[in-house]
Amino acid sequence: MSLTYFLRRAAFAALALAALMTAAFFLVRLTGDPVNLYLPVDASDAAREAMRVRLGLDRSLLAQFFDWAWDMLSLNFGMSLWHHRPAMDVVLEALPNTLALGAIALALAFTAAIVVGSIAAVNAGSWIDRGINLLSQSAASVPDFWLGLMGVLLFAVTFRILPTSGFGGPVYWVLPVACLFARPFGTLVQIVRGSMIEALNATFVRTARAKGARDGRVTFVHALRNALLPAVTVTGDLAAQFAGGGGVVEVVFGFPGIGKLLIDGILKRDFAIVQASIFAVAVVIFFINILVDMLYASIDPRVRVE
C-alpha cells in the first residue's frame, strides 16, 4: 500500500468525518435541553439560566457551533455532564472494551465460518449441507437482544453458571461474545459456502485435480484462497458495525463499552459524550477499512492498492 493511497483515503475520510461531526452537533441538540434533565422540575428560572450560561447554551446555535468546531481540532469535546470529566477521557476508557469484545466475537465467527462453510461446500447437496444451511440461516436471523435475554434466562437465572451483567473476568465476556458471534457466523457461513462451491467448480481447480493434487490441498489452498475474498469484504463491514459497539448487547449485559456509553449519553443528553463517541468510532472505522484493503492485497496478488 503506497503512501499516496493512504493520504488520499485519509483526505476523503477527513471530509466525511467533518460532515458527520457537523451533523452530529446539530442532531444531538434535537434531543432536548439538558438543563431540564439535570435540574429538578421546581428549579427557579435563575438557576436554569445560570446552568445554560455555564454550559454555553445561552448563545446562538451558530456561535456554539464555531466554538465547538475550534475545540474539536484539539480533540476537546468538553466536559461530560454525567461523568464530570473530559468526555474524550471517558470515551477512550470505554473504546478498548468494545474493540476487544468485537474482535473476539468476529475472529471466532470468521474462523468457525471458514471451517463450517468449507465443509458445507465440499458436501453440497448432502444432509450435512442442509443441516449447516439451517443452522447458519437461523444464526443470521436471530435478533441480538432476544439471544441476549435468552442467554441471561438460561445460563444466569436458571443454571446460574454465568453472571447476568457486569464487567470483570472471562466469565463476564461469555454471553456478550456469544450474542455478537451468532449473526456474523451465520452470514459468513453462507458467503464462504457459496464462494467455495463456485471456486471448486472453477477451471483452475479442475486443472489442479487433473495434475494429481490432493483433495485437501485443492480445497484449502487453491479454492479457499479465492473464496476468502468475499468473506473478507463482509467481515470488514461487520467489523465497522462492531466498532460502534453492540449497543443492544452492551446494554443488555451492562457491558461498559462505547455502544452502551453512546446510548446512555443520548438518553442523558450528554452532548459531549455523544459527540466524542461518534468521533472515536468514525476514526476506528477508517482504520478498519484500510486494514481490509491490506488484507485484500495480501490474499489476492492481483489486487493492488496504489
From TrEMBL:
<feature type="transmembrane region" description="Helical">
    <location>
        <begin position="145"/>
        <end position="165"/>
    </location>
</feature>
<feature type="domain" description="ABC transmembrane type-1">
    <location>
        <begin position="95"/>
        <end position="296"/>
    </location>
</feature>
<keyword id="KW-1003">Cell membrane</keyword>
<dbReference type="GO" id="GO:0055085">
    <property type="term" value="P:transmembrane transport"/>
</dbReference>
<dbReference type="InterPro" id="IPR000515">
    <property type="entry name" value="MetI-like"/>
</dbReference>
<dbReference type="GO" id="GO:0005886">
    <property type="term" value="C:plasma membrane"/>
</dbReference>
<keyword id="KW-0812">Transmembrane</keyword>
<dbReference type="InterPro" id="IPR035906">
    <property type="entry name" value="MetI-like_sf"/>
</dbReference>
<feature type="transmembrane region" description="Helical">
    <location>
        <begin position="271"/>
        <end position="292"/>
    </location>
</feature>
<comment type="similarity">
    <text>Belongs to the binding-protein-dependent transport system permease family.</text>
</comment>
<keyword id="KW-0813">Transport</keyword>
<keyword id="KW-1133">Transmembrane helix</keyword>
<feature type="transmembrane region" description="Helical">
    <location>
        <begin position="99"/>
        <end position="124"/>
    </location>
</feature>
<protein>
    <submittedName>
        <fullName>ABC transporter permease</fullName>
    </submittedName>
</protein>
<keyword id="KW-0472">Membrane</keyword>
<dbReference type="Pfam" id="PF00528">
    <property type="entry name" value="BPD_transp_1"/>
</dbReference>
<feature type="transmembrane region" description="Helical">
    <location>
        <begin position="171"/>
        <end position="192"/>
    </location>
</feature>
